[in-house]
Amino acid sequence: LGYGADFIGGNKYLWMQQHWTHHAFTNDVTRDPDTTSTDPFFLFHNYPKGSPLRTTIHAFQHFYMLPVLSFYWASVIFNPTCVSVHHEGAEVAGMRFNNWYLKENRKYTWGLRIFYLFCTCVTPFLYHHWMTACVHIWFMAVVESLTLAIPFGVSHNFENSDRNPVEAGPVDWYKSQVETSCTYGGYIAGWLTGGLNFQIEHHLFPRMSSAWYPYIQPEVMRVCKEHGVKYAFYPTFYDNVKSTLTYISDVGSGAIAKEAKVKAN
Question: Could you tell me which of 90, 86, 73 has the C-alpha nearest to residue 33?
């Protein structure tokens, strides 16, 4: 069952490398590969004023957010790292996954990737006109991309999220997990997303079955309030998306950008 992700276009080993690193260093721009995954075309991270990554086009990025995210499928399927099965972002963060076990088992993920590409990108041309086949592949790619990328995107990119939890020095890991994530909705959203809407609970207890998240959420909120930890909760998915779009707009325009720190000689 561990290779289930490979059957739907993912890569078990690359996902483990990226996701474990993301969980360990959430929103740390120097170590979380998710924070820079769309640079420089689209900015998730709130870079300081004067950053070379900021351009005029980013002021409009909230308008082209969905088109950019619609390429998520293609960026995964045709990524050259599927050959090396080595995630450079994880290595930059100090995570070491390039061991004998990975080298011995990557042949299975190679075979499954070839099988997936044959099923999704070759067989349509065997049964349809080439233009129809292209439309089928494009439609599937966009739907799959947005189904995954939107829930991922709203989870850590919203108004007042902690964008760099270690900027001021060492911080409590559990506190940083809460203040870099958000939760929206309840049971129904949990059923539809596999518990991804309970992102705070997921980051605090990543090995816990998502079926328990709605039951522990009230207690997590209570403990956070008791200890002065900011818990971001949105009643609906719409509220979360609205906050994300506002944040993305402010990041792109520089409205919430901080002054760049000047290094002392």
Answer: 90
* Residue pair 225/13 in contact by the 8 Å Cβ criterion: no
Query: What single string gives the DSSP state of each residue in 54-102?
Result: --GGGGGTTTSHHHHHTTHHHHHHT-THHHHT--HHHHHTT----SHHH
Classify residue 6 by burial, with Cβ atoms within 10 Å: 0-12, 13-18, 19+.
buried
Nearest CA to 215 among 251, 190, 238, 196?
190
Q: Count Cβ atoms below 10 Å from residue 129 Cβ, excluding itself.
A: 10
Which helix (H) or strand (E) segment holds residue 222: the answer is: helix 213-226
In a structure prediction context, what are the per-residue pLDDT tens digits for the chain, which is 265 residues long?
Answer: 678 888 888 888 888 888 989 999 999 988 899 988 888 889 999 998 888 899 999 999 999 999 999 999 999 899 888 888 888 888 888 888 878 888 888 899 999 999 999 999 999 999 999 999 999 999 999 999 999 999 999 999 999 999 888 888 888 999 999 999 999 999 999 999 999 999 999 999 999 999 999 999 999 999 999 999 999 999 999 999 999 999 999 999 989 888 766 555 5
Please say whether the beta carbons of 18 and 34 come within 8 A: yes
Residue 146 to residues 20, 120, 139, 161, Cα–Cα distance (Å): 22, 17, 11, 22
Strand partners, 198: 183
